[in-house]
Amino acid sequence: MPEPVHVEGKKSAGIMLYALSTCGWCKKTKALLNELGVEYDYIDVDQLEHNEREKIMEEVSRWNPSRSFPTIVINEERSIIGFKPDELRKVVEE
Q1: Dmax of the chain from CA atoms?
Q2: Which strand (E) or helix (H) includes residue 89?
Q3: What is the CATH number of domain 5-84?
Q4: Looking at CB atoms within 10 Å, which of 3, 52, 71, 89 has the fewest?
């Protein structure tokens, strides 16, 4: 499994973001997380080698059968699909 990029910030929920480097909604999600100042990890799936990408897409499928981006996994318990600023803010405030 490729190592996700770790972004330092204040501890909150365990946030794992699966993104594409070219996706506008993914960029907005990263910008929001940065603005909120929370710690999170991310992987730009389109930047991975073929076999690594397949492994990560299997992981994305567990949380989001439509395999769309961004897919945000919270505490390995639930996911947020797409750019949903209100839901993300709520998670961070919990």
Answers
A1: 37
A2: helix 85-93
A3: 3.40.30.10
A4: 3
pLDDT digits (tens, 9 = 90+) for 80-92: 999 999 999 999 8
In order, the DSSP letters of 10-79 are B--S-EEEEE-TT-HHHHHHHHHHHHHTB-EEEEEGGGS-HHHHHHHHHHHHHH-TT--S-EEEETTTEE
CB atoms within 10 A of CB 48: 15
Interhelix angle 24-36/85-93, nearest 10 degrees: 30
- pLDDT at 12 (0 to 100): 84
For the stretch 10-22, pLDDT in tens is: 998 899 999 999 9
